[in-house]
Amino acid sequence: MKRHLQKGFSLVETVLVIVVMAIIFTVTAELMIRSLTAYSLVTSRQDTLERAGLVMDRMIREIRLLGILSLQGPLSSTQITFRDSVGVVTNFSLNGTTLSRGNDLLASGIASLNFGYLDKNGNVTQSLPKVRRISIQITVSPNNNQGDPLILRSEVFPRNFSYASFQ
Predict the structure, then answer these.
(1) How many domains does the structure of the chain reveal?
(2) What domain range is 21 assigned to?
(3) Closest CA to 98 of 115, 114, 111, 84
C-alpha cells in the first residue's frame, strides 16, 4: 500500500489563517481611523488658531496705534469705535459670527468678541478719559465644529495715549 503525501492546507488551517488575518486587519483599520481622526482634529485646531491669531494681531496693531482722542464713546463690551490713522471713524464689531472692521470682513466663525476698558490701576472703567489699557477676548468656533472653541485674550496698551495727563 502506498501512502500519498498530501500537498496543501487543511480546512482547519485555512480557517485559522483567515481568522488571524481578520483580527490583524480590524486592529490596523481601527488604528488608522483613530490616527486620521486625530490628524483632522489637529489640522482643524491649527486652522482655527491661525485664523484667530491673524484677527487678534490686526486688532492689537490698530488699537496700539490709537491716540487718547482717537477712541470714540460710548464704550461698549461688544465693539470698539475709534478714529484710525487717516482720521476715518471705524470700529471692530461682531455681527452674528462675522467679525468686521467697519465694512470690511475680517473673519467668520467668531463665537464672541469682548472688549474691556481698564484704568491706570487695572480696574474696569467706562469713563473714556480714564482708559489706559484695552483688553480683548475672542472666542472662535473650530472649523466643522470639531473640538472645543478656541479663546484668545490680550491686553493692549495704546502707545499714543497722552500719558502726561494721567491722573
Answers:
(1) 1
(2) 11-165
(3) 111
Q: What angle do CA 73, 75, 81 make, to 5 degrees?
A: 60
Q: What is the separation of C-alpha 33 from the centre of its chain, rounded to a whole number of angstroms? A: 25
pLDDT of res. 83: 83
Does the residue 31 lie in any domain?
yes
Place of cell 488575518: 21
Which of 31, 121, 19, 131 has its CA nearest to residue 73? Answer: 131
First to last CA, the chain: 117
76 with 115: CB under 8 angstroms? yes
Dihedral over alpha carbons 72, 77, 79, 83 (to 10 degrees): 20
Tell whether the model's pLDDT for residue 157 goes beyond 90.
no
Phi, psi dihedral angles at 86 (to 5 degrees)? -100, 10
Domain assignment present for residue 6? The answer is no
CA pair distance 142, 129, nearest whole angstrom:
37
Segment 89-99 mean pLDDT: 90
For residues 132 and 120, the answer to whether their CB atoms sit within 8 Å is yes
- Rounded Cα distance between 31 and 29, Å, is 5
